[in-house]
Amino acid sequence: MNFSDAGLMPGARVVSGERVTLRTVEQEDVPFVQRAGANPDVRYPLGNPVMSRDDYQGHAGDDADRFLICLDGDDAGPGSPDEDEVRRIGAAAVEDADWKRPEIGYWLVPEEHGQGYGTEAVSLVVDYVFRSYDAPAIGAAAYEFNDASRGLLESLGFSEEGRRRKYMFVDGEHRTMVLYGLLREEWEG
Fold first, then answer.
1. Residue 3 covered by a domain
2. CA dist 167 → 41, 46, 142, 180 (Å)
């Protein structure tokens, strides 16, 4: 499956790490995010339903902070670079930050799994949340069967806080969701 859209321009750079950049999700990015979300290798671990482009556009208009996870070329500037300067590899979101504990979610296209991009991207999202919001903690969740995502969270210092047993019907069976939390002082320490 090809995840790029020729002729489109990714959004502005929010923050860059050593290899990964978080960019704003713009209207032009909806086809990438919507198509990737329809991929069973992404959707099943997240438990998300397939959404039409119109459904996703309505979902993207909520109050969450949404980011593209990108690999930027050397010529990619902070503004909206040309498509050939940036490669989209995933997405991340921060939800509920304005009224309760921020909850983060993330995914990468399957061909980029296992290369450390997810750890770097989630680390950038955690830094962003603690810089942008006066929150004492951040939450995240992963399905019990998603060892890679659970390992990523634990490697960044997240602690298991609970479980929602048989939380959602995913890929033919009811799945348990593992809840994680990270305190500001744990991250900054």
1. no
2. 20, 12, 11, 15
Q: Give domain status of residue 73, yes or no.
A: yes
- pLDDT for the residue 5: 40
Task: Tell me which residue range forms the domain holding 134.
Answer: 13-188
For 66-94, letters b (16+ CB in 10 Å) and e give bbbbbebeeebeeebbebebbbbbbbbbb
Query: Is residue 4 situated within a structural domain?
Result: no
Contacts of 112 (CB under 8 A, 6+ apart): 89, 90
Encoded tokens for 110:
């399957």
Closest to 32 (Cα-Cα) out of 111, 91, 118? 91
pTM above 0.90?
Answer: no
